[in-house]
Amino acid sequence: MSSIWMDVPTLQVNENQLQNFVSFIYKNEQILKEFGAMKIQLNDSCKSSLKKRRNNLILVPRNEQIVKINNDENIYSLHEVDHIDESIQQSSLVIDEHDFWSSLSSSNNKQRLTNTSTLPNKSFFQKKIHPSHFNIHRLPEQSLLQLGGNKVTQQFVPCIKRAHGPGAISQMTTAKQHLFSIDYHHEGGARHWYIIPHYQRKSLQKIIDRYNSSFCLDHGQILIDPSVLDNNRIRYHRIIQRSNELVVISAGTLTQSFTENANWSESIEFALPSWIEDGHANASIPSCRCNAFQDSSRDAIDVTLFRHELIQKYITFNLSNITDDKSISLKGL
């Protein structure tokens, strides 16, 4: 018995569509709702406002290990450690997903380093850019988050992520307050994503509850072998992301991934009207089973700022029938 899965659709974007990239995503939102994500490739006319000289960032892998929770299922939990045990060897070569999951489940590899690190509020994109160039900085202000004014949009800054070698792991997570997010692959080895749409969340939580009812799906506590999803008929989708490709993640979607080799990527959150209209903004509160939401509740977005009439004005002026690819700020409405 197997689940229903297929690769996520890949779209091409041109230079004009980049000028209001949030509008392009909105017009293809049905793909996001069905698959939980989509991959976007920039065509030859597109330009990115990347820094000519990137900072020589030195990032150290987090002291985290992935440990199999029992011998019956290939489900793994995250454990922080005081120091890295040098006797724990990473896989020296990851050719494909079969190699990765096989090495993870092997009896002589009961512990595995995540081998990743993150650097919030850092970016490889320039802030001052030509409007026709892609830049990750401006996505929150182009999105529905602009209705919350600077107090809201300034909370959302790029985050650089470093995979330090083959088989680097990003355990299962979802964006803050179940927002949309976008990930840009700068350079390095391909990243293999597993995408679980939000409508599969309850079914997946029931499976996890068999082993530990305290595990939270939202905040990087677990990693699940896709064979477990197959055996339990959980719908999921795959993406292989390479350099200069974007992955857009829908609101409430769960993701996990691994890399074929060391790489650099960068991500940021944003919002579309469905974040409010479909109830994602409030759904994050009851779904969290760890302390992460309580710890971040001071920064939670006040959803009462997003009144229906303001959302409709935002759609009219920013997302509907845009011919000049310019958006209008509604902060003062």
Secondary structure topology:
Blueprint: E1 5-7, E2 10-13, H1 15-18, H2 21-27, H3 29-35, E3 37-42, E4 64-68, E5 75-80, H4 97-105, E6 111-113, E7 116-120, H5 139-142, H6 150-153, E8 159-163, E9 169-173, E10 180-188, E11 191-196, H7 201-209, E12 222-224, H8 226-231, E13 236-241, E14 245-249, E15 254-259, E16 263-270, H9 274-277, H10 280-287, H11 292-296, H12 308-319
Parallel strand pairs: 1-13, 2-3
Antiparallel strand pairs: 3-14, 4-5, 4-6, 5-12, 7-8, 8-16, 9-15, 10-14, 10-16, 11-13, 11-15
CATH class: Mainly Beta
Structural class: alpha+beta
The beta-strand count equals: 16
Regions with pLDDT < 50 over 5+ consecutive residues? 322-333
**CATH topology heading:** Jelly Rolls
Query: How big a fraction of the residues is strand?
Result: 25-35%
| CATH superfamily descriptor | Cupin
Q: What is the count of DSSP helices, taking H or I runs of 4+ residues?
A: 12
> Major sheet: order of its strands?
2-3-14-10-16-8-7
State the separation between the terminal residues, measured CA to CA: 53 Å
Write down the overall geometry. Answer: globular
CA radius of gyration is 20 Å
Helix content: 10-25%
Total domain units: 1
Order of helices and strands: EEHHHEEEHEEHHEEEEHEHEEEEHHHH
| Rounded average pLDDT | 84
CATH architecture tag: Sandwich
Largest β-sheet summary:
7 strands, mixed
Name some characteristics of this structure:
333 residues; alpha+beta; Jelly Rolls; seven-stranded mixed β-sheet; five-stranded mixed β-sheet; 12 helices; 16 strands; disordered C terminus; histone H3K36 demethylase activity; JmjC_dom; JmjC domain-containing protein; histone H3K9 demethylase activity
